[in-house]
């Protein structure tokens, strides 16, 4: 897929670079087509999440895009989220909706299959598209109307076990963001429409964020700023699944207002520290739901004494497409994007300075691939300068330049902007050298 | 995810076994939730297709679920497929539809990015959900309203190159079905609503199929039986993307009628052979589209002389969820499902006869996994007989039984029903032995 051009636009943001570099295209307001480069990033995030989910014994499934109004009425949530639902009727006039999140369907599914406490705990997740008819889609993947979420649902017999699960999964979420070397603030949050007892938000500290987080200057304890959340809730614009809460303009106002109020406020946790306010971009959200959904949807198991006991649930979401947009914003500079190694569409780009790709160059490619490196060879019929600027724009962690020195003496130039490396290496030493650079990223 | 039960139902079909074995659940008529076992099968098919698509230089992308009525009006297809579209309006009253297929969106996307003959050929594919509001969803995944398709679109400068591409991809499709060891009939077909000049259908010969294929007794040339297709078309029930054409009851009638008519008919190809009629289940469809979409949607490139030239397109679809349903039907017997090795949710199931899983058993599991085998250890708290019947029901190609002989003398029993193997092997020899069995499947 050809990129859209090499000339940078004045004041172009990360989203603009994603478009220009050919990661995605906008089809309609807030609706995007994921092009091959963008899909590679998305699949890398998915696989990384698969590993983390496997480590907690969660099984992956894939629920339908559709849910029914009937089910959302049972959980008493239909009217709360109605303005943002995409709704439709099928040819038999069943009232369907495109799921913005899957608590209802997941609870109903597990209720139809789990009948004994012996089957617990159960941990199920998926990585699928979700839908939200935003009033004002903006910032590309940061607030889109169709988005990709990794959502995990946990089912435990009692509250104590469910809280243990909650802490365990929160730690796994932090580990996932650490894999990507992203500085994430974990903030206490209001459970909002999800119901349930407590909840945390995982924020990337960034000026484009529409949330405000209050961080204690002494103990570091972070709290999602409730003034902003409450105001957003009033407007029916409350996030329920890791999408943005509040509106940007509004959040900015809150920001100033909050500064005035909270400069004097003390930390709830240590009771001594004053609070620093940061703009946050929400990437993930965790909720201990308790029996908020299991009771109305009749997800219970028999226990030794008394009536059947409702199962204690948790739900956990990471915004996959939003994460891609957020990393693009956070790491873009004047030259282009910069991907963490584990999210990069390719780890290594080989850029020949002439249009010919002789067999020795293919052997070199094979040698890098045989090292387990995810490498791409830019054999497009374009000028060398264009290709180099395109590689900078796309943000590959390592670029191997095969120029005159390669043709004359089999010497390659290895560039890694994030480590400040620009070194000439003999081609036989290249695989080992690049492997070492990549593994230190 | 617990299975639904071990007791077989009288006359249960493949779909019934998929439900009972816990591969999927029906959410609503024609709408299914893919459970972990089913999703594993789907992902294996996806990865196999990724390899085949890579071999023809096709890049994977992921278009939105949404398309617009406006675009389908431009291609003049909206009214033809209208009865089967899921339609909706967003909050700004844009008229959207859930795409049943992606020719329009793909053509519009490529028109926005390809501006020179130098960028051609382009080959793009995706594996995504598609939607079709069937009048009568039935046979589970064989005719569902939400389904998974692998769809490939090709863009060539001229007809000759596009026809070459067509033949190349047809061969790749045949190779894909050969990977799965599925006997597939490739039949000449009518291009129908897709427009374009010619087309082939890939059928699995099976009594549950709703199509009829006429096969020459002499040269083997196969033709989709047009009486059935024409009658189905009249009813507005024409398939455009690998979903079933015609209605089953009707196809049966056609069958008898066709037998009368075609017993005398001669093969179009060799002009001598008489025709044998077979019931077919359509798994894939290929179309040479020519300029059917590139002209109305203005996908053209400048050429040396004269006006811009419209690009010649092809489109190709494999019904991924339908394939899963079809293989379940084709291969189920009284004991359960039988997956081709490359589609099996796991290649090897280890079934211990006692509930304990000692460390030596985990080491054995690790040794099998280290061989590159996709293995599962059934450590559920269930009786041995239940687990064995569950393994039969789920259709794992190889089952390793760890019973008394294993506890006493480290001997394992290896079962492979499709090769008729039931052999006792020392545990240290197990990985090599199972590897050999699996590689001959």
Automatic annotation (TrEMBL), chains A, B:
<dbReference type="InterPro" id="IPR002314">
    <property type="entry name" value="aa-tRNA-synt_IIb"/>
</dbReference>
<feature type="compositionally biased region" description="Basic and acidic residues">
    <location>
        <begin position="253"/>
        <end position="265"/>
    </location>
</feature>
<dbReference type="InterPro" id="IPR036621">
    <property type="entry name" value="Anticodon-bd_dom_sf"/>
</dbReference>
<dbReference type="InterPro" id="IPR006195">
    <property type="entry name" value="aa-tRNA-synth_II"/>
</dbReference>
<comment type="similarity">
    <text>Belongs to the class-II aminoacyl-tRNA synthetase family.</text>
</comment>
<dbReference type="InterPro" id="IPR050062">
    <property type="entry name" value="Pro-tRNA_synthetase"/>
</dbReference>
<keyword id="KW-0648">Protein biosynthesis</keyword>
<dbReference type="GO" id="GO:0004827">
    <property type="term" value="F:proline-tRNA ligase activity"/>
</dbReference>
<dbReference type="GO" id="GO:0005739">
    <property type="term" value="C:mitochondrion"/>
</dbReference>
<dbReference type="InterPro" id="IPR004154">
    <property type="entry name" value="Anticodon-bd"/>
</dbReference>
<feature type="domain" description="Aminoacyl-transfer RNA synthetases class-II family profile">
    <location>
        <begin position="38"/>
        <end position="340"/>
    </location>
</feature>
<dbReference type="InterPro" id="IPR045864">
    <property type="entry name" value="aa-tRNA-synth_II/BPL/LPL"/>
</dbReference>
<dbReference type="GO" id="GO:0006433">
    <property type="term" value="P:prolyl-tRNA aminoacylation"/>
</dbReference>
<feature type="region of interest" description="Disordered">
    <location>
        <begin position="234"/>
        <end position="265"/>
    </location>
</feature>
<feature type="compositionally biased region" description="Low complexity">
    <location>
        <begin position="234"/>
        <end position="252"/>
    </location>
</feature>
<protein>
    <recommendedName>
        <fullName>proline--tRNA ligase</fullName>
        <ecNumber>6.1.1.15</ecNumber>
    </recommendedName>
</protein>
<keyword id="KW-0030">Aminoacyl-tRNA synthetase</keyword>
<dbReference type="GO" id="GO:0005524">
    <property type="term" value="F:ATP binding"/>
</dbReference>
<keyword id="KW-0436">Ligase</keyword>
<dbReference type="InterPro" id="IPR033730">
    <property type="entry name" value="ProRS_core_prok"/>
</dbReference>
<keyword id="KW-0067">ATP-binding</keyword>
<keyword id="KW-0547">Nucleotide-binding</keyword>
<dbReference type="InterPro" id="IPR002316">
    <property type="entry name" value="Pro-tRNA-ligase_IIa"/>
</dbReference>
<dbReference type="Pfam" id="PF03129">
    <property type="entry name" value="HGTP_anticodon"/>
</dbReference>
<dbReference type="Pfam" id="PF00587">
    <property type="entry name" value="tRNA-synt_2b"/>
</dbReference>
């Amino acid at each position: 897929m050809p990129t859209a051009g090499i000339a940078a636009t004045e004041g172009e943001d990360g989203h603009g670079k994603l478009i220009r570099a050919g990661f995605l295209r906008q089809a309609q307001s807030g609706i995007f087509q994921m092009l091959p480069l963008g899909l590679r990033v998305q699949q890398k995030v998915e696989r990384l999440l698969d590993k983390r989910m496997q480590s907690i014994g969660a099984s992956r499934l894939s629920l339908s895009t559709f849910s029914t109004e009937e089910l959302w009425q049972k959980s008493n949530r239909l009217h709360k989220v109605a303005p943002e639902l995409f709704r439709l009727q099928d040819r038999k006039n069943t009232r369907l909706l495109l799921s913005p999140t899957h608590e209802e369907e997941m609870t109903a599914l597990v209720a139809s299959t789990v009948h004994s406490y012996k089957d617990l705990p159960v941990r199920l997740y998926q990585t699928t598209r979700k839908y939200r008819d935003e009033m004002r889609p903006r910032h590309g993947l940061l607030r889109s109307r169709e988005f990709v979420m990794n959502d995990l649902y946990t089912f435990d017999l009692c509250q104590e076990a469910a809280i243990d699960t909650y802490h365990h999964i929160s730690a796994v979420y932090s580990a996932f963001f650490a894999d990507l070397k992203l500085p994430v603030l974990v903030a206490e949050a209001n459970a909002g429409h999800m119901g349930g007892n407590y909840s945390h938000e995982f924020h990337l500290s960034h000026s484009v964020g529409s949330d405000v987080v209050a961080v204690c200057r002494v103990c570091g304890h972070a709290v999602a700023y409730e003034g902003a959340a409450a105001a957003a809730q009033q407007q029916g614009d409350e996030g329920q699944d890791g999408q943005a809460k509040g509106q940007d303009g509004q959040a900015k106002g809150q920001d100033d207002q909050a500064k005035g109020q909270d400069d004097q406020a003390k930390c709830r946790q240590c009771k001594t520290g004053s609070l620093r306010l940061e703009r946050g971009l929400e990437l993930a959200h965790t909720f201990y739901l308790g029996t908020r959904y299991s009771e109305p949807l009749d997800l219970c198991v028999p226990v030794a004494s008394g009536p059947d006991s409702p199962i204690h649930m948790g739900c956990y979401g990471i915004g996959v497409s939003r994460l891609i947009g957020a990393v693009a914003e956070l790491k873009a500079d004047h030259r282009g994007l910069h991907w963490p190694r584990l999210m990069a569409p390719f780890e290594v780009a080989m850029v020949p300075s002439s249009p010919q790709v002789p067999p020795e160059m293919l052997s070199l490619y094979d040698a890098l691939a045989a090292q387990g490196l995810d490498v791409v060879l830019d054999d497009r019929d374009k000028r060398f300068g264009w290709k180099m600027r395109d590689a900078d724009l796309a943000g590959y962690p390592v670029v191997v330049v095969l120029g005159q020195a390669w043709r004359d003496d089999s010497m390659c130039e290895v560039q890694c902007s994030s480590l400040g490396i620009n070194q000439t290496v003999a081609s036989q030493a290249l695989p080992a050298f690049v492997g070492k650079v990549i593994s230190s990223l």
